[in-house]
Amino acid sequence: MTASATTVRLLPRRAIDAGRWDAAVASDACALPYGLSWWLDAATDSRWYGMVLDDYRVVLPLPYTRSLLGVRNAVRPDFTQQLGPWGDLRAGDLHTLLKAIPFTVYRTQLSLREGTPPSDIPPTPLMANHSRRTNFLLDLSRSYPEISAAYRKSLRKQVGRYPGDRLLPASHEEIIDIYRAGSGLRSGLQAKHYASASRLMEACAERDAALFLKLVDEERRTLAAGFLPYRRGRMVYAFASSTAAGRAARGEARLLDRIIRRYAGRAGHILDFEGSDIPGVANFFAGFGPVNHPYLEVSGRRW
Q1: CA distances from 291 to 41, 92, 183, 268, 282 (A)
Q2: Cα angle vertex 117, ends 296, 291, to 5°?
Q3: Fewest C-beta in 10 Å: which of 17, 93, 271, 279?
Q4: Is the pTM of this model over 0.85?
Q5: CB 94 within 8 A of CB 6
Q6: Helix, strand, coil proportions of the chain in percent (round to 5)?
């Protein structure tokens, strides 16, 4: 499937008109921050190219690793689940963009926007592998009693035992420290990952585009904390972990429940769990009654 009368330009970051790029992302029905120029700058430390279709009608970022003799890998950056394309999408646009990835790209690992059909992926070596990735979304426009009625029974009983839990603002440093001592140890995150998280937090804070929260119990012990990018009613559970005390007391479950309590009943609001394909994590998220909105990840090598 191909589009007619289309022109694709590959632009280095310095040549991209950020205002027009961000306008294309804003016009997309997905209320996700991942394609915005400032998000990409923070997530990649400004190492990305932009593929621009028809004078910014549709855009697709190509984050890259450092080049070796001019050859680069185009890979999904840290904490950036879906890369697009974004904008006024028409039949054949994705096929046209992916076919136009330059010859200097040796390897790809790109996650495409939710709702992308596999039939739109061109049969090229760079797109040789397709996988459908899990992403759970919870509609918060309903009342809390209606939402919690769909919780797994054991979860509903557990979170109902703690009426004294409270959500409080958390600092960026506090969230990172809690993550580093908890989930970060289990997932093997390195200094470069925490640097990316810190840049993203700063970029979101400058634009009032995220929630920075911690959960404290009746004894004022911090049980969990999280960074949730927030755009047009969509909150992304991007970077959160329990403390040592919280791991023994269902800290993350209680954090998520309190967030749901606070934002339930707000029209147009969604809690995006950002995954997961890890069975234990997927089972945990599924306990809150969300709906899976999968997205495609494509990967391959040029030669």
Answers
A1: 31, 28, 24, 15, 12
A2: 65
A3: 279
A4: yes
A5: no
A6: 35, 25, 40
Whether 54 contacts 70, CB under 8 Å: no
Query: CA–CA distance from 43 to each of 65, 81, 145, 194, 266 (Å)?
Result: 12, 11, 37, 11, 29
208 vs 266: CA distance, rounded Å: 19
Helix (H, G, I), strand (E, B) or coil at 59: strand
DSSP state of 105: E
Residue count (the chain): 303
Q: How far apart are CA 238 and CA 256, in angstroms?
A: 12
Are 267 and 141 contacting, i.e. CB atoms less than 8 angstroms apart? yes
pLDDT digits (tens, 9 = 90+) for 207-253: 999 999 999 999 999 999 999 999 999 999 999 999 999 999 999 99
Cα gap 85→296, rounded to integer Å: 12
- Torsion, Cα of 1, 295, 277, 137 (10° steps): -160
What gap in Å lies between CA 295 and CA 69, rounded to an integer? 33
